[in-house]
Amino acid sequence: MSETNLGPKVPQQAGAPASSQASAPQRASQPAAYESAGPEPTKWVGWIAFASIMMVMLGTFHMIQGLVALFRDQYYLVGKSGLVVSVNYTTWGWVELIFGAIVLGAGASLVSGRMWARIAATLVALVSAVVNLGFLSAYPIWAAIMIALDVMVIWAITVHGAEMKTLRDERKAYG
After folding, report:
1. Where in the sequence is the domain holding 108, given as residue range(s)?
2. Distance between CA atoms of 93 and 160, rounded to whole angstroms?
3. 138 falls within a domain
4. Quick check: is 82 in a domain?
5. Shortest CA distance to 80 belongs to which of 90, 92, 88?
6. Would 121 be classed as within a structural domain?
7. How many other C-beta atoms can be found within 10 angstroms of the C-beta atom of residue 156?
8. How far is Cα 79 from Cα 140, in angstroms, rounded to an integer?
């Protein structure tokens, strides 16, 4: 006949394994980061680093587009009347130059893992895609590539952004 367990087992004083006794002090000495409510960082946290690097690169590209529009506007496929937005290339160049610096800053702040940086980076990437949509007729392949990269950045931030906060908290807990 088999025995039936009708209640919880009562721990025995002398026969308890040493590993269970040692686990209580270990839990007490672990940093509070393990008790955070955020998701555990996975290998996908690399997507946030990717998004940050891409935003720095996209910001640089915006600044290059701005400089080209300022100094050599005949480089583009259409004249100022062919743009989706009715502005001359000098104005467009200044917009691209200033916006490129904003994108670059948002990408650099994304590594911090803070919520405001993720929100700002997502909004800036969204505006970047819209700005490139306005530039699509002047330089279609370049603008399409930048829009695709903006979409990838938005995906990486929104899907895996919370993991960066957990990683930041762990770094803070260990010094």
Report:
1. 95-175
2. 33
3. yes
4. no
5. 88
6. yes
7. 25
8. 14
Q: Half-sphere exposure of 131 toward its Cβ, with a 13 Å CA cutoff?
A: 26
Do 99 and 127 form a contact (C-beta atoms < 8 A)? yes
| Sequence-ordered list of residues with C-beta below 8 angstroms from that of 6, at least 6 positions apart, any chain | none
Based on the structure, what is the number of domains in the chain? 1
Rounded Cα distance between 138 and 94, Å, is 16
Cβ atoms of 55 and 104 closer than 8 Å? yes
Q: What does the block give as tokens for 121?
A: 């980076």
* pLDDT tens-place values along the chain, 175 residues long: 555 555 555 555 554 454 444 444 444 455 554 455 556 667 777 888 889 999 999 999 999 988 988 888 776 666 656 666 677 778 888 988 999 999 999 999 988 878 898 999 999 999 999 988 887 877 788 889 999 999 999 998 888 766 666 666 666 666 5
Task: Give me 6's structure tokens.
Answer: 């009708």
Q: Is residue 115 part of a domain?
A: yes
**C-beta of residue 100 within 8 angstroms of C-beta of residue 61:** yes
Torsion of CA 17, 22, 27, 31, to 10 degrees: -150
Cα three-residue angle 74-92-49, rounded to 5 degrees: 110
Among 163, 137, 126, CA closest to 79: 137
